[in-house]
Amino acid sequence: MKPAVAISGNAGPKVRSDCEITLELKGSGGIVIDLTSKVKTLYGESIVNQVNDMLGFFGIKNAHVRINDSGALPFVISARLESAVKKITDTDLEYLPAFLPENNYSTTRDRFRFSRLYLPGNNPGLMINAGLHSADGIILDLEDSVAPDKKDEATILVRNALRQIDFCGAERMVRINQGERGISDLKQIIPHNVNLILIPKCESPDYIFVVEKEIEAITKKLKLKNQVFLMPIIESAIGVENAYAIAKSSENIVAMAIGLEDYTADLGVQRTAEGKESFYARTRLVVAAKAAGIQPIDSVFSDVSDMEALRATVLVSKSLGFEGMGCIHPRQIPVIREGFAPDEAEIEKSKQIVLAWDSAMKNGLGVVALGSKMIDPPVVARAQKTIDLAIRLGLIGRNWIQDISGENKL
Amino acid sequence: MKPAVAISGNAGPKVRSDCEITLELKGSGGIVIDLTSKVKTLYGESIVNQVNDMLGFFGIKNAHVRINDSGALPFVISARLESAVKKITDTDLEYLPAFLPENNYSTTRDRFRFSRLYLPGNNPGLMINAGLHSADGIILDLEDSVAPDKKDEATILVRNALRQIDFCGAERMVRINQGERGISDLKQIIPHNVNLILIPKCESPDYIFVVEKEIEAITKKLKLKNQVFLMPIIESAIGVENAYAIAKSSENIVAMAIGLEDYTADLGVQRTAEGKESFYARTRLVVAAKAAGIQPIDSVFSDVSDMEALRATVLVSKSLGFEGMGCIHPRQIPVIREGFAPDEAEIEKSKQIVLAWDSAMKNGLGVVALGSKMIDPPVVARAQKTIDLAIRLGLIGRNWIQDISGENKL
Amino acid sequence: MKPAVAISGNAGPKVRSDCEITLELKGSGGIVIDLTSKVKTLYGESIVNQVNDMLGFFGIKNAHVRINDSGALPFVISARLESAVKKITDTDLEYLPAFLPENNYSTTRDRFRFSRLYLPGNNPGLMINAGLHSADGIILDLEDSVAPDKKDEATILVRNALRQIDFCGAERMVRINQGERGISDLKQIIPHNVNLILIPKCESPDYIFVVEKEIEAITKKLKLKNQVFLMPIIESAIGVENAYAIAKSSENIVAMAIGLEDYTADLGVQRTAEGKESFYARTRLVVAAKAAGIQPIDSVFSDVSDMEALRATVLVSKSLGFEGMGCIHPRQIPVIREGFAPDEAEIEKSKQIVLAWDSAMKNGLGVVALGSKMIDPPVVARAQKTIDLAIRLGLIGRNWIQDISGENKL
Fold first, then answer.
1. What is the ipTM for the molecules in this complex?
2. What is the pLDDT of residue B401?
3. What is the DSSP string of C38-91?
4. Taking burial as the number of CB atoms within 10 A of a residue's CB, which of A37, A338, B81, B259 is the most buried?
5. Minimum CA–CA partner of C203 in chain A
6. Which DSSP helix (H) or strand (E) runs through A158?
7. How confident is the model at residue B406 (pLDDT cuts 50, 70, 90)?
8. CA-CA distance, C289 to C294, in Å (whole number)?
9. CA torsion, points A216, A218, A223, A229, in degrees to nearest 10?
10. What are the residues of chain A with a beta carbon less than 8 Å away from any beta carbon of chain B?
11. Taking CA atoms, what residue in B is nearest to A270?
């Protein structure tokens, strides 16, 4: 039997943009709302209206609602209240805030994934401005950053965030939980335009198949259009053993990450700066990913205050073939983006490839050589990607071809 | 046709606790015994009685027996005489000394295997006090430390040692030979309570299956109760290629070791202190073992006089995920045990995990979190093992929980 | 429709031992030959005769032939003219120069392959004296060193070189192209006693099977006797993933090489002197090769002027288990040969093994031990190979056994 009182959300001196809602079902007396909020004068009435609306939506007529507000936006309040309602009733209804039209974008298989910012799934304060940091991806995390008894609340909050927060073009990612919980996460998350699902502690292709099947079922049923990509995270010895099998297990996998905290715990070793203990796993993962044609992504760097060590780590990651890294603080993003960006030599070579290809196409040639090397379409595509990124990063101008032609004329 | 004279055992200035027996069958003249021994005054009569008993047991009525004794215990004398008899007769009889009741113990899948002491299978002098050195395991070796023409003698000596020497709780291990010889070793060894069989130069699961089938046949036939665990040793490139397949090929495998002398010979490279030539093999073996849920065990360290280098090697081994190492001299044991023991940080973390679990169990919670990490039963079991070991090693007191509770009350 | 004019071969200030032939078909007027050559006085007449002969062979009666000669040998001139003819006619005829009888040798599975010299397949100037540099193998390259539009010419030149150049006992190797072009290369090359085919950018056993089947078809059809060995080159992440499967995919594979320029490009990383970015791939390839019983061969070293760096690289290669390296300049050969040669300790150990075996054979023993290690035939074979090489390299005398026996007698 469900309890008659439920608490949802967070309160406390450090909490911001959140609220704690205590919902008590009553036999009579109508809806009684106690609101504590610093912004009560400004928003008190609209909060009360929202709560009354929602309780009507869920068919609750008699209840005592205490709201301890720390500046929660409407979608946060509705997430907290819906969570509370679901703890004490059997409703399957979802109270969905509007979906921002600017969030209805897709991403592509080959887009850069240098930096992806982890956001704890039950912490709205960190989510709201996350899109401003120019991370390549934003991860709303339902797994390790959410305490076990907060999983249900977090899932509803993340769902609402996907509909209401503008992530400014960052790839919209959700890290689901492991096992069956992860599969049920999909039901609540996929309908709200997730670009990519992170699959934690992935150990074998079997789980990928289950995830894929569930996503397919949801997208078919709801006639969703956007593609959902997958990024398994390898965090155990058995995951490393199966890395290549995992990497090639689905067409929807576009990247594979390693999680070194859990991996070193699984091995029973300390994680060191030099990383000898995980060198085999990291290099094997890079090869497995590249062999499967997907992006290898490195682990997060846990010391958010040491930017120099982060920079050094990124350079090693890149030198080994990784193409990105997780971030646990926005200040890590520019260091990571810069570290993984193509350097001068790479840009120069890419220019030559693209120029040779363009010139060959103009001359009607079917095959193109640079020096004695044949250039084929995948090589050209990779070079073009490097050029595009260099332009986006401001490393070269958009008109670099004309600039070069101009120089040649002088 | 068998020869009429056989020599068995060892003699010489460096030999101790052994004897050399020359047995010559005669057509008549009864049993003639020539005994040379420094302890003849004390034990001469009992030795002569033992020899007469045994020859009677084997049905030998006329023979000349020369015994060059260096202080052999009765089980050694009987092993040497049985070997000699079997070289010149066709008997299948076994002259078994009594089985010490204190040797009838089992071990467990997860017990620590930090140190295991190799003992040459044909050298009784090194065996007798081996149990006093507190190694986690004692290996009676029938393979590389026994010269090809001494294999038969060694097998009988090892059989008798398993029955007569008190190994003081150390895991009772035998390293069998390769190929068919190894399978026939099992017939003679398994009936005498071997806890673990080391399988040298293991190249594929196929041989594991043969070993397993043979052990099963023997234990069924003799209705043996104790479980026999397996530890394959990887000593070749093909073994490394098949490491994961080998590691998971049998439920009875509890650990997998690497043997670097043979491995580097197979690769045709020199073995160096830095070990770059075997880094791939060692790290791959660690991952294969962990992925299969068994213990990865490192190679022996061959310089028995350099304790500092051994200590450094152990720390590298542990940092890579190995959980033990072979010993070729008793003095290596304490250094290895100490090196693989859990350090302060590990103990502290394990305490927290065990405390969080205990507290959750007391409060009737089904799931437990430490910080934002969920703790599940295997994590708790591993933490409890670390605690247990820390207690056994005297690193923390048996009542550490009460001690902490007491502190908290102050 | 084929053009009426074709150009074949090379001319220019840096070209030597080559010629450029422009062949223009005419409706009438017979054969008109314009020869430009510094050696016209000496060889002009024989060149003109050769061209007339060949055009007769191909049934061409009216043509204008311009020859810009830089000292081309007859087999080069015929290759160039045949190429030109095939560009403008549909002939399947081959104008084969004589096969030098001294080139009709075979090699063996286990021969040393320390150094193998790459020769661009369309550059006769580098081929002619290549046999004098004592490389273990000579590679006539049809792949990356030949520009796409020169592939046809190169194939004919290489075919003629295989028939006409004395490679002085070096293993006769050809690197074919990738994909279908590589298979059609085989048709033209295999009939001319190729000892070994290098298969570039090998990604899986499938391509090996195709190559093998084609070679088998050709050797059966032409009743060829000499065995054609295979050496796949691993140059991509997927090749590394499949390294062991490739290595054991055919009995004819005797070695497997890694190509680090393409491999690092595939990973998208820079190639460094320390080589951390390819350490996993290199060590995995060594293990895969050794597990399959074949020779692991390291990548070429690209800085042809830095002999010290080359020497250091060779020593690292050897220490990891590689047994050879490609050369892109003859001056690299002695450094590589010396670096991979057995050192004193290896020679000494090999001597002991061979002596122990010889002595055991003399005494009619079936098993042989050196110390406590059993010596079996493959160990002896390896030791004998080391001895043989040491003799070939002048490191020990041919009569070393007698020399040792003599010493012992003193």
1. 0.90
2. 84
3. TTHHHHHHHHHHHHHHHHHHTT--SEEEEEEESS--HHHHHHHHHHHHHHHS--
4. B81
5. A291
6. helix A151-164
7. low
8. 5
9. -50
10. 120, 144-149, 236-238, 240-241, 266-270, 272, 276-277, 279-281
11. B319
